[in-house]
Design goal:
By secondary structure, the chain is an alpha/beta fold. It has a single domain, classed as TIM Barrel, CATH 3.20.20.150. The protein is 40% helix and 17% strand. Strand 2, helix 2 and strand 3 form a beta-alpha-beta unit. Helix 4 packs across helix 6, helix 9 packs parallel to helix 10 and helix 10 crosses helix 11. The chain is globular. It starts with a strand and ends with a helix. The chain binds D-mannose. The site of D-mannose has 13 residues, from strand 4. D-mannose binds next to strand 4.
Length: 350
């Protein structure tokens, strides 16, 4: 496996010089952040990320994300032209050494949480989705901005988008995802890039918006649309695992065996009886996911893709981007490396 860490570029309070000090760290996961979805990424920006990574002894070979414009997801008349721009971004990323591109097909909102600093008894804070708080949020009535979301939408735009997706429905969204993959995957394949779709987070409809990348049946369907390793998964344990219908170790084993996991986000969640969830420490004991089983499944199939610790808690009074502090993600990285070392050695000795 190739251990990686997400870096939000120059504006990230965590410098690459710190990231390189995490034992075993190899790759930088980043993106060009100052270009709107649907526009071409300047080559100088990609070259600059690569240069900065190299200067710090790291490799820039994973992009997270190239966002898919709403018009592609909605299948408007501009969708085909915007898909060509998307293809050009894949080619450009490849030119600067990128091997894996993460993206998602979630309408309007990316990951959704209702509170970012829920205190645990040990004094750490973390991101939560509380079903009671969620029921009180209504993007049709108020101007809500949550951190996983694109802040550039006005409330009117959000209202129009919600209505358009309501008309489109799940079947329409699948149709548009299919058209996107049929055009984009051959381009990625030609330039040696694996496209890694991130599952919907949480993996069920939210605010009446369709969400389709949610469970095993959906992942099967998606991978069959274009049956190529260039059409792979960014298997996010936390996103799939915050719904009790997903058995994450079993999914990792299945898709790992098929060679269709390009990237893994390793994150723990504790599920509450009403379906709410709390992002907790990475260790198996902290939530519903057996991390040892997950890593064992990966080492059993000789997994050679990218892994990163995902959202961390805020500990030791760190402040910063919710979910993306240094300390707890670095602890997560060390824990992940330890599991891999143990599982790989056990496999060799068996
Ligand atoms: C959250 C991330 C997601 C992910 C995108 C990929 O922290 O896992 O925002 O980057 O969904 O497109």
């Amino acid at each position: 496996m190739k251990l990686s860490f997400r870096w939000y570029g120059e504006s990230d309070p965590i410098p690459l010089s710190y990231i390189r000090q995490i034992p075993g760290m190899r790759s930088v996961v980043s993106a060009v952040y100052d270009v709107k979805p649907g526009e071409v990424w300047p080559e100088e920006s990609l070259a600059a990320i690569r240069r900065q990574a190299e200067k710090n002894g790291l490799v820039f070979d994973v992009v997270e994300s190239v966002p898919v414009p709403e018009e592609i997801k909605l299948g408007t008349e501009n969708a085909a032209a915007l898909t060509e721009v998307y293809c050009e971004n894949i080619r450009r990323c490849a030119k600067y050494g990128v091997k894996c591109i993460t993206y998602n097909f979630m309408p309007v909102f990316d990951w959704t949480r209702t509170q970012l600093d829920k205190a645990a008894p040990d004094g750490s804070t973390s991101l939560v989705l509380d079903k009671t708080q969620l029921a009180e949020l209504d993007p049709l009535q108020e101007d809500i901005h949550l951190p996983g979301w694109d802040a550039s939408y006005t409330q009117d735009e959000v209202r129009d988008l919600l209505a358009a997706y309501g008309r489109l429905g799940q079947a329409g969204l699948w149709r548009n995802l299919e058209a996107f993959l049929r055009r984009v995957i051959p381009v990625a394949q030609d330039c040696g890039v694996q496209m890694a779709i991130h599952p919907d987070d949480p993996p069920y409809p939210i605010f009446g918006l369709p969400r389709i990348v949610t469970d095993e049946a959906a992942l099967d369907r998606l991978l069959q649309i274009v049956d190529s390793p260039a059409n792979s998964l960014c298997l996010c344990t936390g996103s799939l695992g915050c719904a009790d219908f997903n058995d994450v170790p079993a999914l990792v084993r299945k898709y790992g065996k098929m060679g269709r996991i390009a990237f893994l986000h390793l994150r723990q969640v504790a599920l509450l009886p009403d379906g709410s969830f709390v992002e907790s420490g990475h260790q198996s004991a902290c939530g519903r996911m057996d991390m040892y089983e997950i890593v064992r499944a990966l080492t059993d199939v000789g997994f050679d893709g990218y892994v990163r610790p995902d959202h961390g808690r805020m500990i030791w009074d760190e402040t910063g981007k919710p979910g993306y502090g240094l300390f707890d993600r670095a602890l997560g990285a060390a824990y992940i490396s330890g599991l891999f070392e143990a599982c790989e050695k056990a496999a060799r000795e068996a």
